[in-house]
Amino acid sequence: MIDARVQNALNDQLNAEFYASYYYLAMSAYFKETDFDGFATWMHS
Length: 45
Prior knowledge:
The chain is rod-shaped. It has one domain (4-44). It has helices at residues 4-33, 37-44. It is mostly helical.
């Protein structure tokens, strides 16, 4: 089985990646709502 420290580090990294992904998605929605379609597309990519 995987070492607990490695598992915790991977879990922390995955949480950070998911948080960033949802943050970019929220920014994309904001830019789309405010008619900044280019920024919305860039954030959604």
